[in-house]
Amino acid sequence: MKIVSKIVLLAIALGTLLTSCDYIDAPYTEDNGTVNPTDTVVRKILLEDFTGHQCVNCPAAAVLAHELQMLFPERISLVSIHAGYFADLVSPNYMYDFTCSTGDQLHTAFNITGNPAGVINRIYNATVYGKDEWSTIVDSLLHTEPEADINVTSRTYDVGTRELSVNAKIDFFADFSDPVYICAYLTEDSIIKPQKNTDATVGTTPEILDYNHMHVLRGSMNGTWGEELTTTATTGTNMVKTISYTLPASDWNVDCMHVIVFIYNQTTGEVIQTEEIKLK
User: Fold this and answer.
1) Counted domains in the chain
2) Among 11, 12, 19, 46, which one is most buried in terms of CB atoms within 10 A?
3) Chain segment 184-208, per-residue pLDDT in tens
4) What percent of the chain has pLDDT over 90?
5) Residue 12 CB-density burial (10 A; 0-12 exposed, 13-18 middle, 19+ buried)
6) Which domain holds residue 70?
7) How far is CA 92 from the centre of its chain?
8) Is the dihedral of CA 74, 193, 119, 103 positive or negative?
9) What is d(CA 169, CA 63) in angstroms, rounded to the nearest whole number?
10) How far apart are CA 224 and CA 221, in angstroms?
11) DSSP single-letter state for residue 124
12) Which phi and psi (to 5°) does residue 192 adopt?
């Protein structure tokens, strides 16, 4: 399946320069009881894109990731992880710190040696793929049956205290003898800061001074590796998990932020299912 076309690529490249912070409108669903996997539940994908504002090839990778998201609406959650030497601060233009401790830990754990690099659903012990491999891997995973569903039944955010709480209902459609963990990551869109670039189809070279950084990982609500949801699970099992977090005092724009909730097999590390909602 050939996913990338030149025309679409150019169109999306121009779109990445827009400053709207809500082009991803992940579904906000209400709990309606037991889910039948043969109805509307589909497998969703977590694509973690390791990047950096000094990575000259990373804007083209971001375009490809966005194109995949547009081709498969509401089925791919993107996390842009700024870590490693490409994320270092350099005067005068590259002094905004996109990094976070969660991103640094993932960068080390997945042994990222260069950017752009992608980890997709953390399959095969978090195998790292070059951007030219992303389409094939994503397409193959999307054609597999879902083994669980995550339904975010509610979320609350207190503007005054910056306290965020998310309730997620998980339904299992397969048996798991290994522990299943749950994570909730925070991302932010529309951070307009400089980015180095060598691809003229994406933007100006050798840098884009008003680059629109999307899906930037800000941190985790419950730790880099999350917390145990259950030691085992059987088909038909369902449970509800509440995750709470207080956003730090910072320049984060909560109107442009998303919560990405995912569950994974703690033994293999592979992501089982993902869901994404707006923070507000």
Assistant:
1) 1
2) 46
3) 999 999 999 999 999 999 999 999 9
4) 85
5) buried
6) 6-32+43-146+182-226+249-278
7) 29
8) negative
9) 32
10) 8
11) H
12) -90, 105
